[in-house]
Amino acid sequence: MTECPQCGTMNEDDVKNCKGCRINMYWAFQHYEELARLRQENKLPPAPQSASFLVNTSKRIDDGPTAGWLHNTIKKFGFKGAGKKVSTTAE
Description:
Elements: E1 2-3, E2 10-11, H1 25-41, H2 52-63, H3 68-77
Antiparallel strand pairs: 1-2
């Protein structure tokens, strides 16, 4: 089980989006500390409510057909090591 860094909900290790706040778990582990710092500096709520259209869309995607390769990749590598930023462009 993996705890969501935004809302604290416990999720299966292979979910794409948090079942509580719907944040993308991979993104959250990559960028959450930076986002939390920006929220604090700008006096914004630490865990904003997700827009309803994003929640509904995300739930429809989760309930729909799953891309097998994505499920297997998440299951193999998980989110635990996602805190290290990676570059997608050649340096």
